[in-house]
Amino acid sequence: MKPAEYWQKRAEQVGDLQHAKAGQYTKSLYKEYERAKRGIQRDIEVFYERYASNNGISLAEARKQLSSGELKEFKITLEEFTDRAKNNKDGKWTKQLNNTYYRTRVSRLEALEMQIDGQIRMLAHKQEQGLTDLLGDVYKDTYYRTTYEIQKGLGAFTVSFAKLDTVAVDRIIKTPWLGGNFSTRVWGNTDKLASQLSTTLTQSIISGRSTAQTSAELAKRMNVSFRAAETLINTETAHIVTEATFDGYRESGVVKKYQFVATLSERTCPTCGSMDGRTFKLSEKMTGINAAPLHPRCRCTTVASFPDYEDVGQRIAHDETYVDGDMEYSQWKKKYVD
User: Fold this and answer.
1) What gap in Å lies between CA 198 and CA 14, rounded to an integer?
2) Which of 125, 158, 207, 262 has its CA 20 to 30 A from that of 311?
3) Are 332 and 157 in contact (CB under 8 A)?
4) Do the beta carbons of residue 229 and residue 296 sit within 8 Å?
5) Residues sharing a CB contact under 8 Å with residue 252, sequence separation 6 or more, in sequence order
6) Contacts of 260 (CB under 8 A, 6+ apart)
């Protein structure tokens, strides 16, 4: 059986690989945020060009009703948003769009708010889909790599472990934890952002801010929202890494205990530092208490803890199909998974 250093190094490598994927996805989401900000800026510019005078625009002027021609133009925009909202799972956005569409009186400010709201809800839909893909991949890769590392470390490769299917993985990554799942948190953050942008927009008009000033204020709110999204991505990734790792432990049939491993650095929080090296039974695992993430952006991990006997590797050979020796992960996956 491999020494303790082997297990810790391998666990950290698996975790680092998954967090690197989260980092790549965060970069792509940043581009989507920038695209949404540009769209909002264009909406603001059109609004001011159409309705503002040299002295800006008053709240009373902003609250005037759209003309029949403007209302017709606005409803075309609503139709475009409605088409894109078809995959909105709870249907709330679609209902909101439909309710507005059938109104005969819509103010200029309401129309602008709906356009901005549409931009950020399209962004949320992309984020939800992106996280679904990311977390599904993270779960599968972590589960199989954990299974592989246990088998390799114990010196016996076997087919005796559960294979994953798409439905099962989707159910696992969407299982609520600590009051919600990634989807509810994405849309919760979006509702919060929508409210903040609406308030900021009204305050900008009341304060007589220019087009550039208003756009800048809204961009600040978007930047704060992106940082919250980044935290969500990292935290949800850490949670799924933990879930997949523990499922790998359970499936092995030999791992009964685990050791908490803190990512030790000058930024390690006291809570994680105090947990480093502590051993628990698998049955005692509690996310946020003795299993990562203990806090937002937590990068801690765990390692399998084995009973102290020499030939533990033979216990994973539940059937007659096992091979002692070394095999690279890609070879193992091709032979036993794909």
Assistant:
1) 42
2) 262
3) yes
4) no
5) 147, 150, 151, 161, 304, 316
6) 275, 276, 277, 278, 279, 280, 290, 291, 300, 302
Locate 293 and state its tokens: 């993430």
Residues 270 and 231 sit within 8 Å (Cβ to Cβ): no
**Given a cut of 50, is residue 163 above it in pLDDT?**
yes
Phi/psi region, residue 253 (left: phi>0; alpha: psi -120 to 50; beta: rest), is left
Structure tokens at 97: 């769009």
pLDDT at 320 over 70: no
Q: What percent of the chain has pLDDT over 70?
A: 91
- Coil/strand/helix, residue 268: coil
What pTM did the predictor assign? 0.90
**Neighbour tally for 120: CB within 10 Å:** 23
Q: Give me 2's structure tokens.
A: 């491999």
Q: Are residues 283 and 293 in contact, defined by beta-carbon separation less than 8 angstroms?
A: no
What residues form DSSP beta bridges with 259?
279, 303
pLDDT at residue 266 in the model: 59
Task: Say if CB 193 and CB 221 are below 8 A apart.
Answer: yes
- Cβ burial 7-29 (10 Å sphere, 16+ → b, else e): beebbeebbeebbebbeebbeeb
Gap between the Cα atoms of 82 and 209, Å rounded: 31
